[in-house]
Write a structure and sequence with these properties.
It is a single chain. The chain has 204 residues and is an alpha/beta fold. The chain folds into two domains: 49 residues, RecR Domain 1 (Helicase, Ruva Protein, domain 3, Orthogonal Bundle); 135 residues, Dna Topoisomerase Vi A Subunit, Chain: A, domain 2, CATH 3.40.1360.10. The chain is built from seven helices and seven strands, in the order αααβββαβαβαβαβ. The protein has a five-stranded mixed sheet with strand order 4-3-5-6-7. Strands 1-2 form a two-stranded antiparallel ribbon. Strand 5, helix 6 and strand 6 form a beta-alpha-beta unit. Helix 4 crosses helix 7. The mean pLDDT is 88.
């Protein structure tokens, strides 16, 4: 049975899928669906093809776990980057946020999440062991913790710090220009850039 607001099951299905995206309400989803409905078929084909290709063809860098169109990601393969420093982040969004500051020129290690027992995510579910192996193998002299400053981020940073304690590497954390509980993704570029530059030694 068609819903009163749509009169079309096909339109309803499209709205449902678009509304499933983070931050998209049903009114916005309807607007996007109607825009696509009235767009040239070639444009819609390009749109859907780009999403399908992203989902099926994007790979993960074997070094840092960031997404890549090929094997090693562009950052890890860039010889101008400082290869002695690795910045630990939760997600690709955090990499983009830090890159936009223009203040950091080292490498990254993307965890793809944080330790969160409530969500069933433990240390073994994250590439923390790979980080320790990387430090021991690649001559890394500093690891920067750039995780969200909420409870899960702090717990993850502490766990990583303890895993690296026996290795000859300096562990630092972004300066507290980023307040407790803040998400890096929503921190302005100036504040985040200063937090990276003015990083401090990690302490318990």
């Amino acid at each position: 049975m068609y819903k009163q607001n749509y009169r079309s099951k096909l339109l309803e299905d499209a709205v449902e899928q678009i509304a499933s995206l983070p931050g998209v309400g049903r009114k916005s989803a309807l607007r996007y669906a109607l825009h696509l409905l009235h767009s040239p078929a070639a444009n819609v084909e390009k749109f859907t093809s780009a999403i399908a290709r992203m989902r099926t063809e994007v790979r993960y860098c074997p070094d840092c776990n960031m997404i890549s169109d090929e094997g090693v990601c562009p950052i890890c393969s860039d010889n101008s980057r400082d290869r002695s420093i690795v910045c630990v982040v939760e997600s690709l969004r955090d990499v983009l946020s830090i890159e936009n500051t223009g203040q950091y020129h080292g490498l990254y290690h993307v965890l793809g999440g944080v330790i969160s027992p409530m969500d069933g995510v433990g240390p073994d579910d994250l590439p923390i062991k790979a980080l320790a192996e990387r430090v021991g193998r690649d001559g890394i002299v500093e690891v920067i913790m750039a995780l969200d400053t909420d409870m899960e981020g702090e717990t993850t940073a502490l766990y990583i710090y303890r895993q690296l304690a026996s290795l000859p590497v300096k562990v630092s954390t972004i300066a507290r220009g980023v307040a407790f509980g803040d998400d890096l993704e929503y921190t302005d570029e100036f504040t985040l850039g200063k937090a990276i530059v003015n990083r401090q030694l990690f302490s318990i």
